[in-house]
Amino acid sequence: MSSFRTLDDLGDVTGKVTLVRVDLNLPMKDGSATDVTRVEAVKPTILELADKGAKVLLLAHFGRPKGQRHSTMSTSFVQGDVEKVLGKEIMFIPEVMGPVVEQSIGILSDGDIGLLDNVRFWPGEEANDPGFARGMAAHGDFYVNDAFSAAHRAHASTEGLAHHLPAYAGRAMEAELKALDAALGNPEQPVAAVVGGAKVSTKLDVLENLVGKVQHLIIGGGMANTFLAARGVDVGKSLCEHDLTDTANRIMDQADHAGCTVHLPYDVVVAKEFAANPPSMRVCNVHEVAEDEMILDVGPQAVEALGDVLKTCKTLVWNGPMGAFETEPFDAATVALAKTAAALTEGGSLTSVAGGGDTVAALAHAGVKDDFTFVSTAGGAFLEWMEGKDLPGVAALKV
Q1: Nearest to residue 272, comparing CAs of 306, 238, 240?
Q2: 62 vs 31, 57, 81, 148, 281, CA distance in Å?
Q3: Of the residues 63, 185, 236, 357, which is catalytic?
């Protein structure tokens, strides 16, 4: 694992201004956040720096104002939610650089926290303008990045600042990078990957990267239908990208050459309409799907066999559900496999790392979100990492 500095490498920070990039892009309803998971994630870093006497300035984006001030997208909207989670008052600063920031730093005492306004109000942020990064850096002594979820973007506050100030990974970033390294960077083998979701087209790069790195590739969700169709299975009126069957065959060939076993369901749950508990629902072999039926979940026999595969593995990377898990009973395969993975993790035989929005929701629905070794809340950044891409925000922290 390439090394990067963490908060353990920081010397005395008393009275020093630390610019901390966090993800405060919270889902809002009626003026307050409906989910504060992202604030909970960065709380340890913020409080550790404040407790050590640093003046902590939080940098974050909120929505997509496209380089212009937008009255409904100020980070001041999340100030109350952040204060609640931290259990501390924070000062809102309506700029990110210049005299107002300078004055505010003068007012803050050691250990106080300030929240700067939405970095995306300035066009220099998304353009990663060195001048803009320099302007922000002028106020700080250190830069800490604790926003892995924004690490796939080369913006001024996620990447540029690291070139102008001594740069460190915050606690959430550090945990994320260690977990990801254990999952694909330098994993204990054999490794299994569960990749689900609706479309192959959105996960092509992920699949192509994984077949060279894992010993077992378990494909679920609508994507499995495209692979089944590529194998000559008639999938009826299931969600399927028929134009990608050649691609699916190519991925299966690559897997063969790399010694990776691709697992596709051999029994499936089908129905004539997509609704909760439809009367037409039945379990059948993949070769028995009628032309007016659609595959909506992986069948019980296949799930049991997949559970047995996980029992032989040391590491699991999971992204995407096995079936249409939002609608019962098509959540059965996802829930059953997630519970098996959680039990193996708790038993100490499996390191399990999961990520992506749908995945977090599916694991929470299965009641095992806290039983996996690590669950990443990052969507795009987690996917790009699974694609084997270098994340600019992470690369900038490397020593």
Answers
A1: 238
A2: 13, 16, 14, 15, 43
A3: 357
**CA-based angle 8:11:12, to the nearest 5?**
125
Q: In the prediction, which pLDDT does 3 show? A: 85
Coil, helix or strand for 29? strand
Instruction: Show the CA angle centred on residue 81, arms to residues 365 and 41, nearest 5°.
Output: 55
Strand order in the sheet with 216-219: 261-263, 216-219, 191-195, 315-319, 351-355, 374-376
- The active-site residue out of 53, 185, 307, 380 is 380
Mark whether 29 is an active-site residue: no
pLDDT at 30: 87
- Contact present, 250 and 294 (Cβ < 8 Å): no
Rounded CA separation 38/329 (Å):
30
Short-list 207, 216, 208, 204, CA closest to 259: 216
Low-confidence spans in the chain with pLDDT less than 70:
1-2
- Half-sphere exposure in the Cβ direction for 118 (13 Å, CA): 25
Does the N-terminal peptide bond of residue 329 adopt cis geometry, omega within 30 degrees of 0?
A: yes
- Residue 67 falls in the annotated catalytic set: no
pLDDT tens-digit profile of 24-75?
999 898 888 988 989 999 999 999 999 999 999 999 999 999 999 998 999 9
- 212: which 2 tokens? 């060279």
What is the set of domains in the chain, with CATH numbers? Answer: 7-172 (3.40.50.1260), 187-386 (3.40.50.1260)
DSSP for 182-213 reads: IIIISPPSSEEEEE-SS-STTTHHHHHHHTTT
Structure tokens at 160: 């540029």
Give yes or no: 199 in active site: yes
To which residue do tokens 């692979």 refer? 227
Neighbours of 50 (CB within 10 A): 20
Q: Choosing from 88, 199, 282, 339, which is the catalytic residue?
A: 199
Does residue 259 carry a catalytic annotation?
no
d(CA 129, CA 151): 17
Contact 306, 263 (CB under 8 A): yes
The catalytic residue among 21, 38, 153, 171 is 38
What token pair was written down for 317? 């990377």
